[in-house]
């Protein structure tokens, strides 16, 4: 079946064009596609499907044409992905499905508006998405355990759950080969992504991310927003401001409006197009023959 691959600040994704909604991938198939040995290797899988062809997105079809069916690398469902949706929009424009400008894209966290600049724009490929306002669902006292140490954590919801921890040095997080543990155990019933954050200066944060269902990733868009939200809450800051967020894969920008709405901006690059063998494809009919309007 056809695919595209790309990254947002080196946060990598596999895009599977399925406009008519005919693919029904199992958890195991998603895992194998995301794996570097059995698939193309990616931090997440993005199925590109029209809202009218996706039962969980039909209600949003009046607002958005396309639905981002996001899956974590372990096969679990994802509600929102800041870097993923920016790359998703870049793909739609590059593939000729949409014109440059502002696109409404449906996600499991609701409709998000993404701006893809035209080729002549001076933003040099920077794609931005209005992320909405962060929520702080609690509980108030969460402890995160990692690398043999314990830190207080803040639960920030950006359409997906985050545990944000402030550290003196990013190396304090250790290797991140083992997922951090949150206490109490029921604080995150659906799992969580962890941000270890170091404050570099006014409007400047640096972080490492252990992403739910993946492990340590080079970047996380919702994680960058969650880190900014937790930093502002800790400083009791409600002013409009712009932030630079440095990650292993590069720099993202988070702009916070006076009402708390966040806009995330950064690179979104399609790096490859091709055809990939679907796991178990020998038992299937050819999916390529079923797909319509694919570029």
Key structural traits:
single chain, 295 residues, mainly beta, Diaminopimelate Epimerase, Chain A, domain 1, 2 domains, 19-stranded mixed sheet, 3 helices, 19 strands, globular, disordered C terminus
Describe this structure in words.
12% of the residues lie in helices and 41% in strands. Residues 282-295 have low confidence and may be disordered. By secondary structure, it is mainly β. It has two domains: 2-132 and 269-289, Diaminopimelate Epimerase, Chain A, domain 1 (Roll), CATH 3.10.310; 142-260, Diaminopimelate Epimerase, Chain A, domain 1 (Roll), CATH 3.10.310.10. The chain is globular, with a radius of gyration of 19 Å. It has a 19-stranded mixed β-sheet that branches.
Give the helix/strand layout.
Elements lengths: L1 E7 L2 E7 L9 H8 L9 E7 L15 E7 L4 E2 L3 H13 L6 E7 L2 E7 L9 E7 L9 E5 L2 E9 L3 E6 L14 E3 L9 E9 L2 E8 L3 E3 L3 H14 L6 E7 L2 E7 L5 E6 L1 E7 L20
Parallel strand pairs: 2-3, 4-6, 11-13, 14-16
Antiparallel strand pairs: 1-2, 1-19, 3-4, 4-5, 6-7, 7-8, 8-18, 9-10, 9-12, 10-11, 13-14, 14-15, 16-17, 17-18
């Amino acid at each position: 079946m056809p695919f595209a691959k790309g990254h947002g600040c080196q946060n990598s994704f596999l895009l599977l064009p399925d406009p008519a909604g005919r693919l029904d991938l199992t958890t195991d198939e998603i895992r194998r596609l995301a794996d570097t040995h059995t698939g193309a290797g990616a931090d997440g899988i993005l199925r590109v499907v029209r809202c009218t062809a996706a039962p969980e997105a039909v209600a949003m079809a009046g607002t958005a044409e396309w639905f981002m069916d996001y899956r974590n690398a372990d096969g679990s469902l994802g509600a929102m992905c800041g870097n993923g949706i920016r790359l998703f929009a870049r793909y739609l424009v590059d593939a000729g499905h949409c014109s440059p400008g502002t696109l409404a894209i449906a996600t499991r966290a609701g409709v998000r508006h993404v701006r893809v600049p035209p080729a002549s724009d001076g933003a040099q490929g920077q794609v931005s998405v209005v992320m909405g306002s962060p929520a702080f669902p609690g509980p108030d006292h969460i402890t995160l355990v990692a690398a043999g140490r314990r830190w207080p954590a803040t639960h920030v919801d950006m359409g997906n759950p985050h545990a944000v921890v402030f550290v003196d040095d990013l190396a304090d997080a250790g290797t991140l080969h083992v997922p951090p543990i949150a206490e109490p155990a029921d604080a995150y019933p659906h799992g969580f992504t962890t941000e270890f954050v170091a404050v570099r200066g006014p409007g400047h944060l640096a972080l490492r991310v252990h992403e739910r269902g993946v492990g340590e990733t080079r970047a996380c868009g919702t994680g960058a927003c969650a880190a900014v939200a937790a930093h502002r809450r800790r400083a009791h800051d409600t002013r409009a401001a712009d932030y630079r967020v440095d990650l292993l894969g590069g720099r993202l920008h988070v702009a916070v409006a006076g009402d708390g709405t966040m806009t995330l901006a950064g690179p979104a690059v399609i790096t490859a197009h091709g055809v990939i063998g679907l796991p178990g494809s020998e038992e299937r009919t050819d999916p390529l023959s079923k797909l319509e309007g694919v570029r």
